[in-house]
Every structure is written in C-alpha cells, then in structure tokens.
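Why do we care about 3D structure at all? Because function follows from shape, and shape follows, mostly, from sequence. That is the central idea of this module. The next example makes it concrete: a single protein chain, its amino acid sequence, and then its structure expressed as tokens.
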Amino acid sequence: MYKTNNTLSHNIRTASIELLQERLFDGCDLMTQTKQAHWNVKGPNFIALHELFDRIHSQVDGYVDLIAERIVALGGQANGTVRSAAEFSSLPEYPLGSQEQVDHVESLSNALAVFGDKIRHAIDVAADMDDQNSSDIFTEISRGIDKSLWFVEAHNQQN
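And the structure:
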C-alpha cells in the first residue's frame, strides 16, 4: 500500500482493499459477460435485449470504476485485467455457444444475481469494518444491479 493521509486505519484500509478487489474481479467478469450476451443474442426480442445488455454493460463499467477508484483512494492498486478477472472471479462461467435469447437472459440473470448477492454481503462487511464509504458504494451498486436483474428477468417471465 502506498502512503496516504486517509484517516482510516491501516488495518481497515487493508481489509477494505481486499474486499473491494474481490468485487472488482467479479465486476470485470460481469462486464465481459454482458458484452457476450449483447454480441450473440438472437430472437424475436433481439433489439430490445441487444440494447438492454449494452446499457447494463455501461452501468457495470461505471460500478467497476467506482470500486477501482476506491481501492486506489485507500492506498491500494486496483487489479482489473481480464486475465486476473478470469482467474479470481467468483461468478459462474458464462456458457458459450448459445444464441437463443432465453439462454442469454437466463445466463445473464444468474450472473447478475450472484454479483448482487456478493455486493449485498460486501455492504455489511464494509460497514462492520467501519468503512462506511465503501459500504455506501456497495449500496449504490446493489440498487443498480437489482434493477438490471429485474429488467433482464422480465424477458423470461410469463406472469
């Protein structure tokens, strides 16, 4: 860690950086999964899903930036390479080969749900560590991910 005048203790900053980095790996993975769906979706709702997946990708990109900048603000170094995300992400692997919209909706819904769950857990962990700013960032991300999940899942719901 580099020296900073941030008044959080070294121990809190170290623990927060580790927590943030774990979610950064997941966020980078989620960004690529949304693009995978965006590029490959086919079917009667193609344009709606194509545009929705791209919008979610942009939102996740913003969340990743928030997380990475928080890591650096705490004195850490953000690691957001594709190779690192592939190695350390806790998200399920995105199934390749499908072009059916129902499959992309299901796969992206699963990824969003897992990411959302990890982010909600991080809200409490950061708050318990007395890092309210990181907890607040995770809360903002959680609200957005829940909304994105709702939009994606609606495409496969009948009632």
